[in-house]
Amino acid sequence: MRIVIVGDGKIGHTLAETLSGEGHDVVIIDKSGEALGKSIDTLDVLCIKGSGANIPTLIEADARHADIIIATTASDETNMVCCLIAKHLGAQYAIARIRDPEYNNSLSLIKKELSIDLAVNPERTTAMEISRLLRYPFASKVEIFARGRVEMVEFRAQAGDKVVGVPLSRLSASLPQVLYCAIERFGEAIIPDGSTVIEPGDRVHVAADIPTITGFFRHLGKHELRVQSVMVLGGGRISFYLARLLTSLGMRVSVVEIDRRKAELLAEQLPEADIICGDGTDQELLVSEGIADMDAFIALTDRDEENLLTGIYAQRMGVKKVVVKINRGNYADIVASMGIDSVVTPRQITCDTLLRYVRARSNSRGTVIERMYRILDGHAEALEFIAQPDDPYIRVPLRDLAVARETLVAVIVRDGQIIVPFGDDYVQGGDFVIIITKRPGVTDLKDVLKAHGGKA
User: Fold this and answer.
1) Fewest C-beta in 10 Å: which of 88, 103, 219, 416?
2) Which of 236, 234, 232, 210 lies closest to 223 in space, CA to CA?
3) Contact 264, 279 (CB under 8 A)
């Protein structure tokens, strides 16, 4: 596919790197020669200096023949204009990053009038991910599938947990039946089988419907903490969306913001939250505002170092759930080594969202990807498809299919019923099928499910 990316910032560069690595023909447009220099040196892409809102620049990038244009500049308005012009030139599909909360209520009209097929809001998406983490305070990550019917939860196994030291094939007799999807151990991603044994310190992904997974963690004794009070450090857009979401759920929310104008604006926008104007890195301020009594602490400033240090301090003060935002992906391992399991990276969340849509468009005639998440620090992917009735694997028992190596059929959802599949189970047309794979670039179930004799 020919993909034009406008904006060579963190998201644009990461997206171009991934898409070019998957074999797409990628063009990057940016006004900054310095920003383009890194992409020229490190990526196999065409770089064009100029404005994506400029018609000659888009023509030079051959936007008229683009399958997808993705506008990811820092300006919502520029992104919207880029999409409008590119679609008029002939681009097939347009995606815009639109972040300002003022556009949120009228987003449907904006998309329709400006020919935008998909609008991505990184801050709102990140806030929603954090809110899911607060539902499972013991979890490192929570992903949703099958339109909310299935959840995949990552947690760190501890010595004494019932899942530790026992082959997975023997756990179903003593615990609610969840699917053990993936394990990360000392940086290695493992797609488990029945003989796999979970060890203390492993990061484990399990999946099931909500009642089953809730019962599973209750049996492990991990479902006792309920988050009712939250302190948020930083008053940016993620904090705005998060505070509005949490207060609507009845949680008590305090937001600490050092900039007085931002704090005053937040106080107007979020009347149900407690807005504190002050330096959130000041330990005396945090103590005076009751950090030790909080159920959760969320660090969302623009500085990774501040988020990390205040997160560590919150843990030492006894806060049971700490989430930190990290902009640099290479900091994730450092943060985890310091005991903070819940890390959110808006850039990666946004890239995963965009990549899912690109893959879906590249496979418009096959089994389209509904959802995609990178797990285990990007070493594996969780993919959701809707099975097509004429696909060759339909109604063939899984034991009679050649499932690709390092791939697991995790969950099948049929007519609202959750199926943890075994050898006798099969896929029907219309089923939601969730797979876990270490294979890069999977775009179709036919890539990983084949009749015996076919290559997988």
Assistant:
1) 416
2) 210
3) no
